UniProtKB/TrEMBL annotation:
Keyword RNA-binding attributed: no
Source species: Candidatus Rothia avistercoris
Subunit structure, interactors included: Interacts with the Sec translocase complex via SecD. Specifically interacts with transmembrane segments of nascent integral membrane proteins during membrane integration.
Locations listed in the record: Cell membrane; Membrane
Protein name: Membrane protein insertase YidC
InterPro entries found in the cross-reference section: YidC/ALB3/OXA1/COX18 (IPR001708), YidC/Oxa/ALB_C (IPR028055), YidC_ALB_C (IPR047196)
Keyword Flavoprotein on entry: no
Keywords associated with the record: Cell membrane, Chaperone, Membrane, Protein transport, Transmembrane, Transmembrane helix, Transport
GO molecular function: membrane insertase activity
Positions of transmembrane segments: 12-29, 35-57, 107-128, 176-195, 219-243
Record Pfam families: 60KD_IMP
Record gene name: yidC
Amino acid sequence: MFDIILWPFKWIVSAILWAFHELFTAIGMDPASGVTWVLAIIGLTLVMRTLTIPLFMKQIKAMRGMQELQPELAKLQAKYKGKTDQLSRQAMAQEQMELYRKTGSNPLASCMPILVQMPIFFGLFQVLNGVPSAAANNESILVLDNAKIEQFNDAYIFGAPLFSTMMRPGDGNHTATIIIAAIMVVLMSATQFYITKQLSVKNMSDAAKQSPMYRQQQIMLYVLPLIFAISGINFPLGVLVYWTVSNFWSLGQQYWVIKNNPTPGSQAERELNERRAAKGLPPVGKTKEEHEAELEAQRERANRGQRQQPMSKKRQKQQNKKK
């Protein structure tokens, strides 16, 4: 059943790999070179991540909506605290869904880019996993004909086959496979740690940092890199290339968002407004006239709020004599 579901995604993966391999060999690259196939996998990654940009923008909107909802959700949880009966749980769920409906938030929207990429990821895993047996049996894998499979089977990078894993080195250099895989697992874990840290610390409002969601992200900050480190030993080098490049893409996307379109009330927004102020620009979302009007209103309130220092009776008498 799983293979049937993955079939169209395997076809897409094989077609994109075929197209990029044809492109690179057309410009004179060796068709059986590991570099050629690595570039084809990088091309696959860039195509898939480009296609998920609209979903990424929806993810940002959904995450910000969820952050803004955290105070209301906290009140709702406090309202039903200690109530474990079925009616109370149903009422809480209904009120929670009503909050989502009013604000247009969707908790699942923040997961969409990952959910869309997972079938492609597993499709690539199955394609690469099937290369040795397909080459041995003179078979093709969907769009990749037998000639391409033979070339992929002969593709090595620093002495390690692209289909090899830490646990299954193939006929290549096992030490090279372990070293290359370990380097990519470290890069994957480090980039994921930094991406999560950016999200959970720099690009969250102060109010959101008091929410359960923030505590969950703090846990995931350490759990996700650990998952990558454990699971990475079972993935072919070609899949690790895809995953590592995808993480660097995510890192670049997140950096751009935090620098140019940060969450309102976050540290990133304050830093952006400081940079804008240094250039003589108003804060994000405000015109120069609106900002000047706000500053003027603040000055007026400060002037009205100034209180005269109280004087002793002796000093009051001295001032009255002078008059």
